[in-house]
Amino acid sequence: MNPIKKQLANLDTIPGVALKTAQMIVAEIGVDMSIFPTEAHLSSWAGLSPGNNESAGKKKVHTS
Known about the structure:
The protein has helices spanning 5-12, 19-29, 39-45, and strands at residues 54-55, 58-59.
């Protein structure tokens, strides 16, 4: 983890993210953010983007 010490330290500044969590984030996403054109792309890839379940005033209901 020495080569990415700076990136881990940056992630550690996020409230609720400690070193172990920062390491897990880097393990999943990596440190090269150039693969995501925008932060919205990263958010979507991570599954953190809200869904749009409404169209023309009608709410879509998903049943499983």
